[in-house]
Amino acid sequence: MSITATLLLISTVFLLQPPPLTSTSATTAYELLAQYNFPEGILPKGITGYELDESSGKFRAYLNGTCSFSLEGSYQLSYKPIISGHISKNRLKDLTGVSVKVLFLWLDIVEVVRDTGDLDFSVGIASASFPLDNFFVSPQCGCGLDCGEEFENPSLPLSSM
Questions:
Q1: Distance CA 50, CA 66 (A)
Q2: Whole-Å CA distances, 101 to 12, 64, 126
Q3: What are phi and psi of 40, to 5 degrees?
Q4: For a surface tag, which of 24, 59, 62, 125 has the fewest beta carbons within 10 Å of its beta carbon?
Q5: What angle do CA 92, 107, 123 make, to 5 degrees?
Q6: Which domain holds residue 115?
């Protein structure tokens, strides 16, 4: 392949790349949630960064690794290292990277809608509503909201933005 053809191919690849996501005035992913009327507790502690395309609402939030925990003894949640979707006032849609265990199946949470004092979580075929005040505190990977002393002062602290 000639140098001209190689340069043309490289420039074409760069032109086809999607525009990079940009940050808002929020300095943390948790502050970003607040700007869109969501409580910080829908994300676990340890989010290391985020990106947002303000024109489309497309976002990405980053964890150092996978994260899972139980809430209220009956709900098991799992987060992948990258959580993405589209955010707008009172609505997260096209979510990827968040799953809930229902009976023996892991189902992806695809949408979260804030409806007055509740958050409605949808897995596509079904949804469930929970009081907003259940999400004022972010759960911690491994122990959720029921963390004992060993999780309050971990030897390797999780970084929060």
A1: 16
A2: 43, 22, 13
A3: -65, -25
A4: 125
A5: 40
A6: 19-146
**How far apart are the C-alpha atoms of 40 and 129, rounded to whole Å?**
17
Q: Which two tokens stand for residue 36?
A: 């869109």
Q: Read off the pLDDT of residues 41-92 as tens digits, 9 standing for 90 and up.
A: 999 999 999 999 999 999 999 999 999 998 776 789 999 999 999 999 999 9
CATH number where 25 lies: 2.30.240.10
**Per-residue pLDDT averaged across 3-19, rounded?**
41
Cα(37)–Cα(32) distance, integer angstroms: 9
Number of domains in the chain: 1
Is the pTM here over 0.85, yes or no?
no
Question: Which tokens belong to 71?
Answer: 């809430």
